[in-house]
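Q: Sequence in, structure out?
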Amino acid sequence: MTAAPGRSLALHGPLQWHLTHGVIPTAVLVAGWAALLGLAVCRSAHWWTRRLPCAVVLALAATVLLHYAVDSWWQPFPEGLPRRVLFWIGIGLLGVLLALFRLPPLRRRGRCAAIVAALLVLLMSGSQINRQFDQYPTLRVLLAPWLNHTPAFVGSRADRTTAAPSGRALSEVWQPPAGLPAKGTVSTTALPGQRSGFQPRDAYLYLPPAYQAPVRPLLPVLVLMAGQPGGPGDWVNSGGMADTMDAFAAGHQGLAPIVLVVDPIGSDWSNTLCMDSKIAKVQTYLAQDVPDWVHTHLQTAEGRTAWAIGGLSFGGTCALQLAVNAPQLYGSFLDISGQDEPTLGSHGRTVDEAFGGDEAAFDAVDPLHVMARRSFPDTVGAFVVGASDGEFGPQQRHAFQAARQAGMTVTYTELPGAHDWNVFRGGLAGQLPWMAQRMGLVR
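A: Exactly. Output:
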């Protein structure tokens, strides 16, 4: 295996420039507004009375139509499009429409200027939407799928392993050998649904420096999931998962959890609800297929306290679901900006499409209903959400209270931000120390 994606290349300079704060997004914003103003202003009286109002009305109508098509009809993801995102989509459409209305009477140079102005408006809209989610903080992250090559996982078994004695942390008995790599490795691997029949995309596997030692320590496992829409690569690229783990390992003699970023949805626009239902058997995939693969291909610590599950948004909701429906496997969970109920957009639609209208079948696996029936005194978890997240904040507080009433040892944390990658990245980094302690890695 080779180094984690992007870290084998000396990517400095422009690729490291910030796209969500600082000079670049500000310059793009100024240029975009100037371009929109230039497109909107014309000496022709006919422009002001007919073409400009027509462009504005069409842009507004298209934005409203998109809103209803996505949020009410298609519903590719349970939460609606944020108003700020809709606003910037509308501005982008307005820029394109203004340019189209300006083109007919213009000469070649004027047409080129109008096209460039429209592109600047679109660039501004895309930049502002990116600032909303902070998914691409740098050009390196934006271009990661094309710049980086992530090798396929090639398993190997060490002749000797070492485990933490009962009652002690692994760090107390681990002695790193000379020449231990400073960074872990990231690779991709197929992780098929042998029992579930589910067809996921490839998973990403992070193996910390200590896993590469001749005498391999038996490390705990963190199963991590991204949001929807999204995929496993989001945690690697936008989430900087490997950098977070490497930073932890650097302070703990190369020790860090093994991280397996799995795919519980199958494609960007699917919504499996992370349940066993008419849609797919994703709970079986995460509770049986994933651990089966780990036990076959890796050497790891055993027991529910050595296994944790976590995720963001859809993945956070999913983590809570597995913590209460497969507590024999996952003794800890990390729910970042998740929901209080898995949904396809509405409760009625969820029950109808996933369970044929059978409320009892839904209640049997819905985390809040499960926690109302059972207690989980041996489960530890954390809820993390953005302080300004008006959509998911109330749901996180609801789920947190339900988990606490079910006897779990849980914490609730708000971080600066909304439903964005600043919160997701900060949630993983901030909660990693207690997870490592809980999983028997450090004291």
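The first strand starts at residue 160 and ends at 162.
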